[in-house]
Amino acid sequence: MRIPWSRKQRRASTRIATASAILVCGGGLAITAATPAQAAACTTVEVVSARGTFEPGTAGLIVGDQVYNTMKRKLQPLRSTSLYSVKYPASIDLSGPSKGTIDLVNHIKQQAQSCPSQKFVLVGYSQGAFVVDNAIGLKSLGDAKTTIPSEFESRIAAVMVFGDPSHLIGKNITTPLSTPYWNRAKDFCAAGDPVCGNGFNVLAHLSYGGNANEAADFAISKL
């Protein structure tokens, strides 16, 4: 059954598509197929990343890969790290965010059960932020009607989104009591970014790699 979108949801989707066109045509980045994620080892902390639309890289060249690599460098050798790239189309497929949410939630359930001491850091960029938003209970575009089970909430150390289009439908992961994770959440929205704000600088939407160090420090502070 096709779920009707609100005007705000359509606006958010249009802005993602616009930014994606810049990423593909003008951002100087080659599109590559996502590498299928392997079962992760029982590390101290696992970064679970949902990449942006058409974003290349294992977990997202612009955000996910950089945040993970920075965290890994800062934590090792005292604490071990692993990375999981959410499996979803990350394209203009309107069902993509729902597919991503289902994969993220299923992975957390399986991994948390297999590794009782492991902590998780959730990262979502652009369309990937929709995936993370929905997984933590902030219903947004493409709500898959599934969230991380309450018994695993304490295992989510930090949640971070970058260029989150949910702003355009009036939602923010850091709003007090909006989700069980609001006080361990961080939201990055660059000045001028049209996807998470009312700006007109599409290149601002591609700038979040510069926040990797700040994001890593925030996540580590919550472990």
Automatic annotation (TrEMBL):
Asked if the keyword Hydrolase belongs to this entry, the reply reads yes
One short Pfam name that applies is Cutinase
**Top-level taxon:** Bacteria
Q: Where is the signal peptide?
A: 1-39
- What GO terms are given for molecular function? carboxylic ester hydrolase activity
Q: Which InterPro entries match?
A: AB_hydrolase_fold, Cutinase/axe
Q: Is the keyword Hydrolase in the record?
A: yes
Identify its protein family: Belongs to the cutinase family.
Family matches, as PANTHER family: CUTINASE 4, CUTINASE RV1984C-RELATED-RELATED
Name under which the protein is recorded: Cutinase family protein
To which species is this protein native?
A: Actinomadura rudentiformis
